[in-house]
Amino acid sequence: MTTTEMMTLKTEPFVLNFGPVHPSTHGVYRMRATLDGEVIIDIEPVVGYLHRGIEKLAEERTYTGFIPLTDRLDYISPMSNNLAYCLAVEKLAGIKVPERAEYIRIIIAELQRLANHCVAVGSFLNDAGAYFTPFMYTFREREKIIDLFDMVCGQRLTYNYMRIGGVSQDIPEEFMPALKKLVDQLTRFIEEYERLLKQNEILLARAKDVGILPRETAINYGISGPVARASGVKWDLRKADPYSIYDRFEFDIPVGETGDCYDRYRVRIEEMRQSLRILKQAMKDIPSGPVKADVPHLVRPPAGEAYAHLEAPKGELGFYLVSDGSIAPYRCHIRPTSLINLGALREMVRGWKVADLIIIFGSIDITMGEVDR
Amino acid sequence: MTIADAVINSLPMQATVTPDWPGGYWWHWLFFTVLLIVFVLCMVMGAIYIERRGMARMQSRLGPNRTGPFGLLQAVADAIKVLLKENIVPDKADKLVHWLAPVIAFAPAMMIFAVVPFQDGALLADLNIGILYVVAISSVSTVGVFMAGWGSSNKYSLLGAMRNVAAVVSYEMPLVLAIVGVVMVAGSLSLNQIVLAQDIPFFLVQPLGFLIFFIAGCAEINRSPFDLMEADSELVAGFHTEYSGMKFAMFYLVEYAEAIAISAIIATIFLGGWRGPFLPDWLWFIVKVFVVFFLMVWTRTTLPRVRIDQLMALAWKFLFPLALINLFITAVQVMFWPPALPWLMVVVNIVIMVILVVSWSKFFKLGWGRLEV
Amino acid sequence: MTVALSGKEIASQIEEKFPGSVEESSQDSLVMKSNSLLPAATFLKDTESLKFDYLNYITAVDYYSYFEVVYQLTSLEHNHSIVIKTRCYTRENPAVPSVVGLWQGANSQEREIYDLMGISFEKHPNLKRMFLWEGFPGHPLRKDYL
């Protein structure tokens, strides 16, 4: 080889498969990455390993009987899935939910947002390499929230708590004092957590300016939730299209500037603080009364269609229901938050290295149950 | 009179210590060989215990506490489990390379202990080039790691092994330069003489050297925050993905044996080896080794991981210039500082270290950004 | 509150620009002919007063005599939304133009509809099955599958 030939080393890209079973990808998600050395040239996502046909199953179940199936969609935050489905059926059938049930729904939804962000932040830092330590701390707090849910409905993972027209049962008396204690503990925990991680040099080096998603790209891809807000899109369904009684509460929407992984992490931490603010207001104002509207077990909404969406912890989760007047939905479509958020992964990742692929993927916060349904 | 003069005047006393055993040299060799092997294995078990319990307690969970009193026999249980596993060799692997790799990786870790003094004159071989021998031998285990990655015929392993080689070769530089600073102050390469010269422990006299050696040492042995060679959440297990059974046990042993070896070297050349009041000398040595190892466990639990190009940037742009500046300042001090004021030198050195580290890190950019593809 | 714009109003605006493209319209939604879907969608996205830059979802429903593909668009700036539909009257190889050129988020959702309902999208960059494997017989979400 001449000197000039030796100077320009010819390299060849190769395909590396990050298989469905992997210690870090959140669930069964497969990526075929074309790498040139360590630099990623292209990725091709392969999904479908968790496809259970939930939309088809909806046509066989009654409206109330479908609620347990919605738990299995985004199994990190099942209460939001239940709530989205119940909102869609109530919009279709024109059912009004009593006041106490609305307040309970808001409290449960915000607690679920806190629990989800605990997992999201913990696993983001785990992917960054902090060998399980922040993960354990956030899971300790999530345990306390799950204990509250256990008190309310007896379940720790798939709650099946919301019903069409309200919630399935009233909250017990020990719930409110426990919730008050939890809100104080969580406020202190977030401060402590921030002190450890906010200015950590290595985290800043790994996550700042990595995986930037520009604002226009985010809107074009239909991204929602903390990922979009970190890119500068000031769009939160709780403020833009308030559902339930969110218009009575005072809270801010944290918006990021650059849209890198660090901004997504900061947006989630700030959202946890805002959720605590909503919880404090809801705890004060909760009235007494019935917790479920008088709805028959076999609901027959009038023929028509409706779409109801809410701000789930991961983004905009919506249910599109078509009814033909019988006891089962004619068609139920679930707007898959994680699948749509995943659409932008290819744009965000090209040009970065393998280690960044893992951290960018972790910062989007995907649950495969929602992607594949 | 300067320190240089004091060193030159003490040269005739630096004869090597000849063993005065009744049987002569061979009994000395046999005794110490057996002692060293037992010592390394016991220290590795202790290290595994400290790591697992220490890390667990820092993550607010318990750690192993069932096997034996306080979980002390956990390492034994792990060893037995691993030995009973089937030895799987991949079909397309290069058999000889695959078989030899753990041996080549493990032997140097044991050989380092040949020159480490447990007491005044109690070491296997008092080479008068002691520390040079240590540096030379510790580079050989990199060959073993690369053989492991290559012989596995697995893209993940090869990626991990190449990262490892790049990192180890880069961090040799600051490591050796930090050692040279100590050697200049002590006046000898022999580890026994270095310990004898430490009336003030060298981590006070050479704080910058201690810091550089600690960081470079952590990088050499693939410990967090530099453990991207076996990054659990990225490459499954890096270069030892395809190993099982006894060979995997060897790699596991290598990791901890090297950690103990680096801790022993730090304890010898920076913390004063076996010197200390009240307790017997060899006990002081063991205590110091465990203190340094605990420091390594602490950094592992707390810090996230750096990326490969950030790792290289840290070695070449941060540690290497600082090591050179340290060498220069040490040389100036050895030539011109009067030996009657050692504590003033300590204070001056600490101030210099703080100023250098803080100001250098302001002007230092960690790694590249996104590449255009 | 996100104002759900009236289907009739938007239908009249579209009829002005592209006469003969709207099939029917009601208070909630409007149905367009499939060959005029793309120009009308471009018009909806680019007009300043409408500016529908955010695609909420695409889905398809199987009414036995026709397939209906439903789109919901939202404007983040003006905070209003509209539901558009288009129909395919054939049961073998139904086809609808793809809106991937306008809203990139449609990519994975259109693949899902192709996989589960069998509706192909013209000019889609990568129309392959997503959840089920290549060679799976039939399209499960259709009403005549089981």
What would you note in describing this structure?
The complex is a heterotrimer of chains A (373), B (373) and C (146). With 373 residues, chain A is an alpha+beta fold. Chain A has 16 helices and 8 strands. Chain A has one domain (62-335): Cytochrome-c3 Hydrogenase, chain B (Orthogonal Bundle). In chain A, a hairpin with a 2-residue loop joins strand 2 (30-36) and strand 3. In chain A, helix 5 (99-128) runs antiparallel to helix 6 (133-153), helix 5 packs antiparallel against helix 12 and helix 12 runs parallel beside helix 15. The radius of gyration of chain A is 22 Å and the shape is globular. Helices cover 65% and strands 0% of the residues of chain B. With 373 residues, chain B is mainly alpha-helical. Chain B has one domain. Chain B is globular. In chain C, strand 7, helix 3 and strand 8 (120-122) form a beta-alpha-beta unit. Chain C has a domain at 3-93: Beta Polymerase, domain 2. In chain C, the strands form 2 sheets. In chain C, strands 1, 2, 3, 4, 5 and 6 form a 6-stranded mixed beta sheet that branches. In chain C, strands 7-8 form a two-stranded parallel ribbon.
Key descriptive features of the protein:
heterotrimer; A: 373 residues; alpha+beta; Cytochrome-c3 Hydrogenase, chain B; 3-stranded antiparallel beta sheet; 16 helices; C: 146 residues; alpha/beta; Beta Polymerase, domain 2; 6-stranded mixed beta sheet; two-stranded parallel sheet; 8 strands; 23% helix; globular
List the helices and strands and how they pair.
The complex is a heterotrimer of chains A (about 375), B (about 375) and C (about 150).
Chain A: H1 3-7, E1 14-18, E2 30-36, E3 39-46, H2 54-58, H3 67-71, H4 78-93, H5 99-128, H6 133-153, E4 162-163, E5 166-167, H7 175-197, H8 201-207, H9 215-221, H10 226-230, H11 237-240, H12 261-285, E6 304-312, E7 315-323, E8 331-335, H13 337-342, H14 345-349, H15 354-364, H16 368-372
Antiparallel strand pairs in A: 1-2, 2-3, 4-5, 6-7, 7-8
Helix pairs in contact in A: 4-5, 5-6, 5-12, 5-15, 6-7, 7-12, 12-15
Chain B: H1 3-9, H2 25-58, H3 74-83, H4 95-111, H5 130-138, H6 140-151, H7 155-186, H8 191-196, H9 202-205, H10 207-220, H11 246-269, H12 281-302, H13 308-336, H14 342-362
Chain C: E1 3-4, H1 7-17, E2 22-25, E3 29-32, H2 37-46, E4 54-63, E5 66-75, E6 80-88, E7 95-97, H3 106-117, E8 120-122
Parallel strand pairs in C: 1-6, 3-6, 7-8
Antiparallel strand pairs in C: 2-3, 4-5, 5-6
